[in-house]
Amino acid sequence: MEIRRPFVNCILKVILTILCKIECKEYIEALYNNKPLLVVFNHINFLEVPILVTHSYPLNVTGLVKSETWKNPIFAFIFNTYKAIPIDRRGAFSDSFKQVKQMIDNGFYMCISPEGTRSKNGVLGRGKAGIVYLALEADVPILPVAHYGGENIWQNMRKFKRTKFHFKAGKPFRIKFEGKPDKDEREIITSEVMGQIAKLLPEEMRGIYSEQALQECKYLEYI
């Protein structure tokens, strides 16, 4: 698997470069300036994780991916190459979360979309509280990353036009909370995490987190 990763990475990067014009220097620098951590990002379409993973090589970057994706043999081959972790979106998260902790302990950066599903139009959707459980259990920092431009991929492909992907990285932070948050506390923390992504996006793409992006956070601590 380690032997095939450079070859798979090269092929994917060539394909992505043909389809897209990618600006991700800020994201790459943020990874090199921080130890392995959780990378949380907004989810527009299927290209984010391939871009985040291939353009950060040779750093060990992988992602948490819905388990049904492994039904496609091509996707299964690619995700296994990068040691991606499957997650059952119906709610059986504990095993996946344990694997995430192990991967981070082994020096991997873990890419996760708190939205859990694609927005398609680029507007930031509601985050899931699972990111709070995961961050507290793994006890690692979080790096917020936002991107835009990918919402135009299908229109541009029909016009044989490359899509500009802009990636921005924020300040890494930790969730500061002792014990186990209750439902209301989880919602507040989730909103604060999503606000860190929102503030990196153009104002019209911040969705329900427009106000949160401008507010101070009670449960987050920059590092």
What does this structure look like?
The protein has 8 helices and 9 strands. The chain has helices spanning 5-19, 25-32, 48-54, 73-81, 94-105, 130-138, 153-158, 183-198, and strands at 20-23, 38-41, 61-66, 85-87, 109-112, 142-148, 163-169, 173-175, 220-222. Strand 3 (61-66), helix 4 (73-81) and strand 4 (85-87) form a beta-alpha-beta unit. Helix 1 crosses helix 3 (48-54). The chain starts with a helix and ends with a strand.
Give the overall shape, derived from the CA principal axes: globular
- The main sheet orders its strands as 1-7-6-2-5-3-4
Write the element-wise H/E pattern from the N-terminal end onward: HEHEHEHEHEHEHEEHE
Query: What can be said about the biggest beta sheet?
Result: 7 strands, mixed
Please estimate the helix content: 25-40%
What's this, in brief?
This protein has 223 residues and is of the alpha/beta class. It is 37% helix and 18% strand. Strand 3, helix 4 (73-81) and strand 4 (85-87) form a beta-alpha-beta unit.
Set out the fold topology.
Elements lengths: L4 H15 E4 L1 H8 L5 E4 L6 H7 L6 E6 L6 H9 L3 E3 L6 H12 L3 E4 L17 H9 L3 E7 L4 H6 L4 E7 L3 E3 L7 H16 L21 E3 L1
Main attributes?
single chain; 223 residues; alpha/beta; 9 strands; 18% strand; globular
